[in-house]
Amino acid sequence: MSLADVLDRAAAGGRISLDEGVRLYREAPLHDLGAAAHARRMAMYPTSDVTYVVDTTINYTNVCNVHCTFCAFFRPEHHGEGYTMSHDKVLERVRFAADQGATQIMIQGGVNPELRIEWFEDLFRRVAAEYPKVDIHSLSVSEIAGLAKIEELPVREVLVRLKTAGMKSLPGAGAEILVERVRKRISARKIVPDGWIGVMREAQLLGMPTTATMMFGSIETDEERVAHMQVIRDLQDETHGFTAFIPWYYVPYKTPLRGREASGLEYLRVLAVSRLFLDNVPHLQASWLTPGLKLGQLALFYGCDDMGGTIIEEQVVHDAGSTNEATRAQVEEIICGAGFQPVIRDTYWNLRSDLALATA
Ligand code: SF4
Predict the structure, then answer these.
(1) Contact (CB, 8 A) for 139 and 167
(2) 75 CA from centroid of ligand 1 (Å)
(3) Which end of the chain is more exposed for a tag (fewer CB within 10 A), N or C?
(4) What pLDDT score was predicted for residue 153?
């Protein structure tokens, strides 16, 4: 089958194989690839709306026993630069975000073996009680798996307890590339790909919305990038629990792994193939934090229908060398500048027309 035929089938919502995905990634002319992904996005959402969520990331601890080689944020246990925020400090950050209109908070950090499940339950109960309009879209598969290990509890029980305490949704962080060869090389202590999928499946079966991420640009091959998408697509066929896919690229500058930063063209190709390959995942998010807002704007023509969060404060990617930041107004201006209409959404992808745009 010709490349044009594969592109046409994918743009029309037809399923493509792993081999076809790799072929598109490697061989399709960039503009044709983008046009097909954009056509798919417009067929799924025939509107000029581009959503974003007002949120913040609170990195509550940098102590971590997983020691990923691509991470410049963590400090090993007992390191002098390790920190853990008090609950009061986290609440202060939530208040700061809520005052700026945040509807979602991402409380994420390292896998700190000193923190027991009660620490999270108490924190989430306080956040939920004091800020009932802010959704706790927090932790990661690594932190959930770490808690299950420390507490010697099944993953499901950890999730049920956290959900009862107020956690609404599980972000897709910590997937990197869900291929065992890659995990062994860049995060050997991290949960294996089947384990990541298992935690996500449990969360989805409990009715929690989840997202799926992909950190590319470390040591993986083109085939492994598409193989990662295949793992996500297979689980989505089973559960339909992912709301969005969020590819972002690795920032190497201050990490032990080092390497080179992915190019803008690689980023756009990954986005477009993601939109075409993941025919069952509703939303594709432009994660502008590493490529920056300008490339994030271009992403809106490569299959993305969502600009992600405003990320009022974030430490993990910044510690690796990223300097990108944006205000709500800047995110909206970027969307308008591309000819689209910014619309605020919440964690569940409800459109929140009751919330005023920053540029209104
Ligand atoms: S990426 Fe997450 S799990 Fe890995 S070392 Fe950094 S904080 Fe720990």
Answers:
(1) yes
(2) 9
(3) C
(4) 98
- Give the domain CATH number at 241: 3.20.20.70
**pLDDT above 90: residue 286:** yes
Cβ pair 307, 286 in contact under 8 A: yes
Ligand 1 neighbour 64 (Cβ under 6 A)? yes
The pLDDT value recorded for residue 290 is 82
Kindly indicate the confidence band of residue 325, based on its pLDDT and cuts at 50, 70 and 90: low
β-partners of residue 169 are 137
Residue 350 in any domain: the answer is no
Residue 351 counted as domain residue: no
338 is a domain residue: yes
Q: What is the pLDDT of residue 248?
A: 93
226 occurs within a structural domain: yes
Cα distances (angstroms) measured from residue 321 to each of 31, 56, 73, 299: 30, 19, 10, 22
Domain count, the chain: 1
Gap from CA of 250 to ligand 1 centroid (Å): 13
Range of the domain at 162: 31-344
